[in-house]
UniProtKB/TrEMBL annotation, chain A:
The lineage of its organism: Bacteria, Bacillati, Bacillota, Bacilli, Bacillales. PROSITE patterns: CHEW. Pfam families: CheW. This is Chemotaxis protein CheW. GO terms for biological process: chemotaxis; signal transduction. Gene3D superfamilies: CheA-289, Domain 4 (2.40.50.180), SH3 Domains (2.30.30.40). Residues 9-149 form the CheW-like domain. CDD domains: CheW. InterPro entries: CheW (IPR039315), CheW-like_dom_sf (IPR036061), CheW-lke_dom (IPR002545). SUPFAM superfamilies: CheW-like. GO terms for cellular component: cytosol.
Automatic annotation (TrEMBL), chain B:
The lineage of its organism: Bacteria, Bacillati, Bacillota, Bacilli, Bacillales. One of its GO terms (molecular function) is phosphorelay sensor kinase activity. It comes from Peribacillus saganii. Keywords: ATP-binding, Chemotaxis, Kinase, Nucleotide-binding, Phosphoprotein, Transferase, Two-component regulatory system. This is Chemotaxis protein CheA. Its EC number is 2.7.13.3. PANTHER family: CHEMOTAXIS PROTEIN CHEA, SENSOR HISTIDINE KINASE CHEA. Residues 303-553 form the Histidine kinase domain. Residues 284-305 are annotated as: Disordered. Residues 1-103 form the HPt domain. Gene3D superfamilies: Histidine kinase CheA-like, homodimeric domain (1.10.287.560), Histidine kinase CheA-like, P2 response regulator-binding domain (3.30.70.1110), Histidine kinase-like ATPase, C-terminal domain (3.30.565.10), HPT domain (1.20.120.160), SH3 Domains (2.30.30.40). Pfam families: CheW (PF01584), H-kinase_dim (PF02895), HATPase_c (PF02518), Hpt (PF01627), P2 (PF07194). It catalyses: ATP + protein L-histidine = ADP + protein N-phospho-L-histidine. Residues 555-685 form the CheW-like domain.
Length: 157, 685
């Protein structure tokens, strides 16, 4: 760790979705897994792909593309599952690829621009500018909001 | 001294002693003249006092001490036991429980108990009505007990022969009664020191209680040793008195002839021996005789089963590790089938059998008698009956029935609710009961028993029963059921309505039950445990609530089935049987496909459609059907093929997906994939 790193720095995992770069604080990430067999769970919202056996723990899996209402893509060699933990929930997020851990200086984080009208806007905590990269910071609480899960299932059933 | 390491033991033991106090107090209330019971309570209170004083919980020790004084007065017939005395004693025990709970939760165990202490002091001074008749009978009882004080130990033939032979060789036999000081902390150590002294002077023939119990401190404060020695009684006594914390020592010479004659004379089991009390003992002796008599009965009651305390966490870890093993076992079985190697086959088979045995043992280790839940009910019922001015006799049957600890932990509240319900709404007031020609005292039976893979708990009461009209009226007014549907509903289904959410029959909300949480909570709690609850009733003669619970929650037997490319597990507990049905045999009733199964019309549920399984291939000529049941209703689940029966470890779907329709959980199969467990109860309406 460099001496310049101040306390306010944010260490994040960077991942890609449809060409854009997103970030989740490492504190919320448990592990990054390769894609494995997913058991479909019937009667759930479309973005819940099912459950996997994560070393003996049955873990639900969300397709983040589908969650952000982007078109779904075929899974490839680079596709990863990021296991995140929020309070007592552990959930896997399918992303196109994940390969970077970066320290973001606090000064570089800006609130999200209000111009965005797409769905993903409500799950965004802010954006971070790093040299020429633009990282979108994810708000996990919103992404994993169980209320949304219930509403959708309720409408379906 | 750092007491933390003892804290856990202290809390556990305190709870046990308080439980004993509670139970015995209730017992005493039934037989107020039985001094043995008073002694039991006294001993528990005494131990509790000692422990809490050692641990530095002064308030606890103080209150116990006051309670002990009252108990002492009772057993010395200074005061008689009236219902006021009971109330105060119960209250004192309540306070003690609160204190122990506060300590368990990390508090300091302090509590304002001045009122109870005062009441106890008043009772102790005898400032409550004394029942003369009762006390005279009590004194008679004491006289009987006192008779036994002469000879403390009973000798068998072998011991007598030893005594006789040593007598011939010029040894003298003595029976020595040693009592330790009440505040003695290391009783076992003192016992050891006394024995060391005795072994130097002669040979120890017998001790009462036996040496093992002495080592474990399972005695009050006095014990008896028989020795043969050449030394004089006087010397022995002096030597023993040198051991610190010994209060009194009595040395009796044993007269063999008298033991013989008393042995021969069966009618007088224990003739009081004319003992030569070498040193007229300190005035305490007379008192000691009595707990002694009680101790004899209680030690004989204590079975010699050896147990150890194990932290429940360790058991949980063991269970988790074993679950992993079960998953790997499944994997091994699968690999061995695929490889088709004879030797591997045999080894895996053997391992499966052993792990099967292991599973039984581990599951049994987690079994706890329902007693641990039931034992708080008598007091609760007593209190309730008093509050409601009803007369209730609670009968508990099958308290020894065992259930998995996880189930035990959850079942308490629903049972409390049902019991309160039975007493508040079920049993009528004595006046009403009398008017309808019933015994004034209502009976509530709490019964637990095993049957197959389930445990049943029933709460039956001989009260007013459930009124069909009132239930229907209420259900209709709450919009739970339509008027047309209500008319044709059979009685049992009407009674089931009281479990519907938003239903509460109590016309006025009483303090006892109906605090906003209805029977629907009971139902959902029990169903979340994989159990069911049902009710039956006869107006005027009472109702019965019965709960069916699985023996264990974590490992269950399932039938694995395949639907297209997906695997599902159906719990064996809800399967009646499997069948292969030809396409032509399927009949249509309205929009529902049904089959004729052993003369019954059973609706078919196509899991493929219910679970929206992606279809890769078309239907067969034949359907594989799993017939499942919920209560007395049946349904046939149509699947593609049966894979087989398997033991699986039940796992949740994670907190994110906590309520999925018709899926009760998941498990990990031998190949490492997750299979979902079908919730048949949700499928059958």
């Amino acid at each position: 760790m460099s001496i310049h790193t101040s306390v306010a720095d944010l260490k994040v995992i960077v991942f890609q979705l449809k060409g854009k770069e997103y970030a989740i604080p490492v504190s919320q990430v448990r592990s990054i897994e390769k894609l494995q067999h997913i058991t479909r769970v019937p009667g759930t919202v479309p973005f819940v792909k099912g459950v996997i056996n994560l070393r003996g723990v049955v873990t639900p899996i969300i397709d983040l593309r589908s969650r952000f209402e982007l078109e779904e893509a075929e899974h490839s060699d680079t596709t990863r599952t990021i296991i995140v933990a929020l309070e007592d929930m552990e959930v896997g997020l399918i992303v196109d690829s994940a390969n970077d851990v970066i320290d973001i200086p606090a000064d570089n984080i800006e609130p999200q621009p209000d111009v965005v009208g797409t769905v993903e806007a409500e799950y965004i905590n802010g954006v971070a500018k790093l040299e020429k990269r633009l990282l979108i910071l994810i708000n996990l609480e919103k992404v994993l909001n169980p209320d949304q899960l219930k509403e959708s299932t309720g409408a379906e059933g | 001294m750092d007491m933390n390491q003892y804290l856990e033991v202290f809390i556990e033991e305190s709870k046990e002693h308080l439980q004993t106090c509670n139970e015995q107090l209730l017992e005493l209330e039934k037989n107020p003249l039985d001094l043995k019971i008073v002694n039991e309570i006294f001993r528990s209170a005494h131990t509790l006092k000692g422990m809490s004083a050692t641990m530095g919980y002064e308030d606890l020790a103080n209150l116990t001490h006051k309670m002990e004084n009252v108990l002492d007065a009772i057993r010395n017939e200074k005061i008689s036991v009236t219902s006021e005395v009971f109330d105060v004693l119960f209250e004192a025990v309540d306070h003690l429980e609160e204190m122990v709970m506060s300590i368990a939760e990390g508090g300091d165990g302090k509590r304002d108990v001045a009122k109870v202490v005062n009441q106890l002091l008043l009772i102790e001074k005898g400032e409550s009505p004394v029942n003369v008749a009762a006390s005279s009978e009590v004194s008679a009882a004491v006289a009987v007990l006192a008779n036994e004080s002469g000879l403390k130990s009973i000798y068998d033939e072998f011991e007598l022969t030893v005594l006789e032979q040593s007598k011939e060789q010029g040894f003298e036999s003595y029976e020595i009664s040693v009592s330790l000081r009440e505040d003695c902390l290391l009783k076992a150590a003192r016992v050891f020191m006394v024995f060391e002294v005795l072994e130097k002077v002669g040979e120890v023939i017998k001790s009462n209680p036996p040496a093992e119990q002495l080592e474990e401190e399972q005695f009050d404060s006095a014990f008896h040793v028989t020795i043969v020695t050449r030394e004089s009684a006087d010397d022995i006594q002096k030597k023993i008195l040198k051991v610190s914390e010994v209060e009194t020592v009595e040395v009796h010479t044993i007269s063999l002839n008298e033991i013989r004659s008393s042995l021969n004379n069966d009618s007088e089991q224990q003739a009081p021996e004319v003992s030569n009390i070498v040193h007229p003992a300190v005035p305490e002796t007379k008192k000691l005789a009595e707990p002694e008599a009680a101790k004899k009965t209680s030690t004989s009651k204590q079975s010699s089963s050896k147990t150890i305390r194990v932290n429940i966490e360790r058991l949980d870890i063991l269970m988790n590790l074993f679950e992993e093993l079960v998953i790997d076992r499944g994997r091994l079985e699968q690999i061995s089938r695929e490889l088709n190697n004879q030797e591997l086959h045999e080894t895996v088979e053997r391992m499966s059998r052993i792990s099967g045995d292991l599973q039984t043992i581990i599951l049994n280790m987690r079994m706890v008698p329902v007693e641990t839940v039931f034992n708080r009910f008598p007091k609760m019922v007593r209190q309730l009956a008093r509050d409601l001015n009803k007369k209730i006799n609670l009968e508990i049957i099958g308290a020894e029935t065992e259930l998995d600890r996880t189930v035990i932990d959850e079942i308490g509240d629903p049972l409390v609710h049902l019991l309160r319900n039975a007493i508040d709404h079920g049993v009528e007031t004595p006046e009403v009961r009398k008017a309808s020609g019933k015994d004034e005292e209502g009976t509530v039976v709490l019964k637990a028993y095993h049957s197959g893979n389930h445990v049943f708990i029933e709460i039956e009461e001989d009260g007013a029963g459930i009124s069909r009209e009132r239930v229907l009226k209420k259900a209709i007014s709450k919009g739970i059921i339509s008027e047309q549907a209500a008319a044709s509903l059979p009685d049992r289904q009407v009674y089931e309505l009281i479990f519907a959410s938003g239903f509460s029959t109590a016309e006025k909300i009483s303090d006892v039950s109906g605090r906003g949480v209805g029977l629907d909570v009971v139902k959902s709690t029990i169903e979340s445990l994989g159990g069911t609850v049902s009710v039956d009733s006869k107006e005027g003669t009472g109702s019965i609530f019965s709960i069916q619970l699985p023996l264990t929650l974590s490992i269950i037997s399932v039938m694995l089935v395949e639907i297209q490319k997906e695997k599902f597990a159906i719990p064996l507990s809800s399967i009646i049987e499997t069948a292969i049905v030809k396409r032509e045999e399927i009949l249509n009733a309205h929009n529902q496909k049904v089959i004729d199964f052993r003369g019954k019309v059973v609706p078919l549920l196509f899991l493929k459609d219910i679970f929206k399984v992606p279809v890769y291939q078309d239907d067969d000529e034949y359907y594989s059907v799993v017939i499942v049941r919920k209560g007395d209703k049946m349904a046939g689940l149509v699947v593609d093929s049966f894979i087989g029966q398997q033991e699986i470890v039940l796992k949740g779907l994670g907190n994110y997906l906590n309520s999925v329709f018709a899926i009760s959980g998941a498990t990990i199969l031998g190949d490492g994939q997750v299979a979902l467990i079908v919730d048949c109860n949700a499928l059958i309406k």
